[in-house]
Amino acid sequence: AQSVTQPDIHITVSEGASLELRCNYSYGATPYLFWYVQSPGQGLQLLLKYFSGDTLVQGIKGFEAEFKRSQSSFNLRKPSVHWSDAAEYFCALGSGGGNKLTFGTGTQLKVEL
Amino acid sequence: NAGVTQTPKFQVLKTGQSMTLQCAQDMNHNSMYWYRQDPGMGLRLIYYSASEGTTDKGEVPNGYNVSRLNKREFSLRLESAAPSQTSVYFCASSPLGVTSTGELFFGEGSRLTVL
Questions:
Q1: pLDDT number for residue A100
Q2: Which of B42, B97, B108 sits opposite A103 (nearest CB)?
Q3: Nearest-CA distance from A58 to chain B in Å?
Q4: pLDDT in tens, chain A (113 residues)
Q5: Strand duo B10-13 + B110-114: pairing
Q6: What residues of chain A have any CB closer than 8 angstroms to a CB in chain B?
Q7: Is the backbone of residue B86 left (phi > 0), alpha (psi -120 to 50) or beta?
Q8: Among residues A18, A23, A21, A20, which one has the least CA distance to residue A6?
C-alpha cells in the first residue's frame, strides 16, 4: 500500500530564513509527487509536482523540491521565507494507473517576524 | 472565475439527520473528488468520479453516497449523520485525473458538525 509521511507537524522559522519541509513516501513503482499549500479557511493549491525527469522541480512562490529515489523523499525548500508563507503544507503521492492522491498529514508552518 | 463551488459552507446536524453537500465546477473538468480533512490526519478520499457517469470508492466511503449528476456537479450525501462525520469536506476537480496533469482544483470547503 502507498503512504506518505510528513514527520514534522509544526515548524517555526524566522522571516528571511531558509525552509525545508520533509516528505517521505512508500510506493513500489515510480511515484508522482506533489506539494500543496493550504491557507487558513481555504482549499488547497498546488505548489509543484514531480512526474519524471529532472529531480529538482521548481514551483510557484519561489518553492522548489528535490526527488531522491534512494531516500524515498521529496522535500520542499525555500531559500528565504516570507511572512505570507505561513500556512499548512501537504505532500501527496499519486500512483500510476490510479486516479487519486494520497496525502500526508501536513506540516503547519509558522513564520516569526 | 468561480472554479469549484461548494454549498453549504457551514452546517450543523443532529445525529441521524441526513444532508447533501453540493459541488459544482465550471472548468469542464472530467474528474471530481470528495475529501474529508480531520486534524492530524490530512485529507482522506471519500469518493471520486473519474468521468461523468462513473463513481468509485476512496479510502473512507462508509456512511456516504455520491452522485455525479452531470459533468459539472458531484454531490455527497450523508444518509444518517454520525458524530464521527464531523469534519471539513473538500470537493476537488481535475481535467484528466491527477496522474495525467497532477493538479487538483479545490473548493473552499464545507465545515460540518454533527451533534
A1: 74
A2: B42
A3: 14
A4: 789 999 999 999 999 999 999 999 998 887 889 999 999 888 899 999 998 888 999 999 999 999 999 999 999 999 999 999 999 999 999 875 556 788 999 999 999 99
A5: parallel
A6: 4, 9, 32, 34, 36, 41-46, 49, 51, 90, 94-106
A7: beta
A8: A23
